[in-house]
Amino acid sequence: MRSTRAETFTRVIDAVFACNGGFLAAGDALTAPVGLTAAQWQVLGFLEDGAATAAEVARRRGLRRQSVQETVNRLLRNGMLEKAPNPADARAPLLSLTARAREAMGALGEAQVEWAERLAAEVPEEDLEVTLRTLRRLRGLVTGPRS
To answer: Most distant CA pair in the chain: distance in Å?
Structure first.
């Protein structure tokens, strides 16, 4: 028999899965006008901070490397990413955004801000801060320390 705490934890997991599905659907709706998907947006968003390998994107985003690589391949074909040699590992090229990707990300940024402002207005800031701390702690427990 599960403890009350374990039962609550299970309900939290269910709620996170449901939110993730909703966030992905919202991401797909936000990205459709610029010809992207939520998955592509996640990869491009990570690379806005600088070049990285597909494996690094997967690790830091908590995604499967294979699915990130498939997304990267589509972004390369669509002219959103470019590859450069990686001095640390010749087998894993560094990926960076093209001008076309930066333009799409700029357009998405505006739409995302409007969406986030609208939803955030419905939840007290303190609740959002507690949720963020809790989710970061849970991520650390299930996957080990990450940024």
So the answer is: 56
> 83 or 62, which is more confident?
83
**What string of DSSP letters covers 70-112?**
HHHHHHHHTTSEEEE--TT-TTS-EEEE-HHHHHHHHHHHHHH
- pTM to 2 decimal places: 0.82
For residue 40, which amino acid is it? Q
Q: Are 41 and 63 in contact (CB under 8 A)?
A: no
CATH number for the domain spanning 76: value is 1.10.10.10
Distance of CA 64 to the CA centre of its chain: 12
Q: How many domains does the chain have?
A: 1
pLDDT at 15: 95
Transcribe 101-145 into DSSP letters: HHHHHHHHHHHHHHHHHHHHTTS-HHHHHHHHHHHHHHHHHHH-S
Give the confidence band of 117 by pLDDT, cuts at 50, 70, 90. very high
Residue 16 lies in a domain: yes
Side-chain half-sphere CA neighbours of 114 within 13 A: 7
Which residues span the domain enclosing 48? 4-132
The dihedral built from the CA positions of residue 127, 129, 134 and 136, taken in this order, carries a sign that is: positive
